[in-house]
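Appendix B. Chain record.
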Amino acid sequence: MYKTATKSGKKQSLKDILDCLEKDDTKERRRAAALLGLPHYISGEDPSDVIRMCDAHVETLDEAMKGMQLGLVIGCEGGKQGFIPHEVFDVAVVVEETIVLHNVKDVAQSFAMLMGVIYCVNLKYPDAMKYSFEFIQRVVMKIKPDQASARVHGLRNRILRYKL
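Structure tokens predicted for this chain:
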């Protein structure tokens, strides 16, 4: 689906994510690409307030977390190496500029941990990525899938067409 969306030329960020996959295609990177590309695919969402990448050896986490209400800080070896990090040093789950969970080595696991923190603390999804989180909840985790918004329901139907 991401490839067909990039053919129109409107979603350059998705094309950049797919280009990173062509260089190094592993299961972990595919999962990371699917999750990191989701807000770009769902038009109108900006993941920069929720997902931030930083060089694990140069930047401090305090700089990366500044102003972050809820999200992930992905510490990479050598900084941001394209849209998908090659070597993840550490992923931290952040709530109100405070690390609540860290030492997660996989982007997909960190998304699951973030969803768990959101549920445990009963937080509202960040407005910048509300449809992405709703998609993960309703379609991927199958929690109350019948209550999905029209946008998420349409995306689910497009995915089901690709499965057939």
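Further analysis of this model is presented in Appendix C.
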